[in-house]
Amino acid sequence: MSGQFEAATDIGRPIDRVFAYLADGRNDPEFSPRVLRIERVPDAPTALGTIFRSTVKDAGMKTSREFRITAFEPPVRIRWTEESKNAVAVREGGYDLEALPGGGTRVRIFNVLEGHGLGKLLVGLAVAAARKDAGAFGSRIKAATEAAVEPG
């Protein structure tokens, strides 16, 4: 079983700068409190094939995660897949960016979650929790990006 959640937000910053901020997954802890630590491999600008290794805390448990960038199309599209095999993992996720009139950017984030082993019983709960938080997650992305990225 799998399920998807998504969020969208309008950010008052230019698309190229928003893309650069989001492409550097090391910024994730600024808007995702579940991410405790993250590193980029190799330690070079994000590109197709870049890996992000993280430690996250979900439902009170720490797990290690490894995501590979599977599509990288500046400044409009980033896709990833989780290579680690946790009970609940991200089969596919991504950002879609769209330039808005006036210099802002609309960002859509999504993740398709799937269960492995016992996770097949838990994935529904994980998707429900992610959907419940989706609006707040979008708001956190907006706040973090606008705090970190200079206006046009």
Question: Helices, strands, pairings?
Answer:
Layout (H helix, E strand, L loop, with lengths): L1 E10 L3 H9 L11 E7 L9 E8 L2 E13 L3 E6 L5 E12 L5 E11 L3 H30 L4
Antiparallel strand pairs: 1-7, 2-3, 3-4, 4-5, 5-6, 6-7
Describe the protein's architecture and organization.
This protein has 152 residues and is α+β, with helices and mostly antiparallel strands. It is 26% helix and 44% strand. It has helices at 15-23, 119-148; strands spanning 2-11, 35-41, 51-58, 61-73, 77-82, 88-99, 105-115. The chain has a seven-stranded antiparallel beta sheet, with helices on one face. Strand 3 (51-58) and strand 4 (61-73) form a beta hairpin. The longest helix has 30 residues, at 119-148. The protein is globular, with a radius of gyration of 15 Å. It starts with a strand and ends with a helix.
